[in-house]
Amino acid sequence: MKSESESITAGPVIGEHGSAAAIFHEASARRSSEIPQGQPSERASYTSPAEHNPKHDVAIERKSQWALYRRHCDDLCREVQRLPEFLLNDRVIDEGLEVVVEIEATLDNLYECPWGQSDKLKAVVMVIRSQILNAAWDRRHVEFLSRVAQALRLAYLIDDCFVDSVFQMIDENDLEPFRGTVTETSVRKRYRMEEIKDSQ
After folding, report:
1. What is the pLDDT along the chain (200 residues), one digit of tens a residue?
2. How many structural domains does the chain have?
3. Residue 192 domain-assigned?
4. Which residues 6+ apart lie within 8 Å of 95 measured at CB?
5. Does some domain include residue 145?
6. What is the pTM of this model?
């Protein structure tokens, strides 16, 4: 039987460099095996604030706004294309009221759409509304809406120049650029002032 002193000296001597290194490597290997495989380390999952690119977020938001703008323009074109079906004697008949309501609703959506320079898209919508709200729609309105809807759909830049082009379309379609009442030009009466002299 081995003595107690022999049993102690038979074990590894911690003070020796070889035995200490072996214990260190064994402990390191055991710790590595306890880490779940396929899980990213904390360093890999950390995103430095310096790595965040604000321009990327702006580009994504811009793309989303453009898609929303184009969708509203497509809706407007689709409804405007239905208007000629409801023209009778150059007037939009009552059966076309559903289309009229859809067009006005689509213009409301465009008014709220965050596209264009500053509030220029809102200005465009207001100019269009000035011609169609509280008005008896006829062929002039249909042709105007057809032109402006196509122009909106093809335009990328909505600025002062585009607003001016809408006014030009109004003038070319024989509408009133500064229309502010429901009175139509065709029914306005003209008066002449004359001096009345007393008979001698």
Report:
1. 555 444 444 444 444 445 655 655 666 666 555 555 555 544 445 455 556 677 778 889 999 999 999 999 999 999 999 999 999 999 999 999 999 999 999 999 999 999 998 899 999 999 999 999 999 999 999 999 999 999 999 999 999 999 999 999 999 999 988 775 433 444 444 445 566 666 65
2. 1
3. no
4. 86
5. yes
6. 0.63
